[in-house]
Design a protein that fits this description.
Oligomer: single chain
Low-confidence stretches: 1-26
Largest sheet: none
Distance between the termini: 52 Å
Structural class: mainly alpha
């Protein structure tokens, strides 16, 4: 009898710890508010930028097979998701309407691949420019202008 009650209390403790430590990103329907604070637009942009950062990291992962850089990108992705969670919480706290999606690389997958491909092409051209004593290009390719990216629905 004592083993059963000990087992129940250990299970209850484990469930309590799991519910406290595993706080999932809660998604709620956008809230209707009469007048949103001025910073809500900036916060929504910051939240959406998380998807763009995740998409670029995934695109670079496709083109780059370095295990060390892949590990660094995974760490960066964890930071991006944590930052998006904080932005989401701030939005809720400020009374902003909250997004009805979680940050995802798939939202900007095509644009991120086009950007990564353009950057790879630029690197190749710069390598040949060095060999031919021509000036290198330091301009960011137009495909990498994330403000012009439109998301796909997923």
């Amino acid at each position: 009898m004592q083993k059963a009650s000990t087992l129940l209390s250990v299970t209850a403790l484990a469930l309590a710890i799991a519910s406290v430590t595993a706080a999932p990103l809660s998604i709620a329907a956008p809230q209707k508010s009469k007048a949103e604070p001025a910073q809500c637009t900036k916060l929504r942009t910051d939240y959406d930028d998380a998807s763009k950062k995740l998409a670029l990291a995934q695109a670079y992962d496709v083109l780059d097979h370095s295990a060390i850089r892949s590990t660094m990108r995974n760490s960066e992705n964890s930071n991006v998701i944590a930052q998006a969670r904080m932005t989401f919480d701030i939005m809720k706290g400020q009374g902003c309407s909250v997004p009805d999606y979680t940050p995802s690389a798939g939202r900007y997958g095509l644009q991120s691949l086009q950007c990564a491909s353009a950057l790879q092409e630029q690197r190749t051209k710069n390598a040949f420019a060095d060999l031919d004593n021509r000036p290198r290009s330091y301009e960011t390719p137009k495909e990498c202008d994330t403000t012009a990216w439109t998301h796909s629905t997923n």
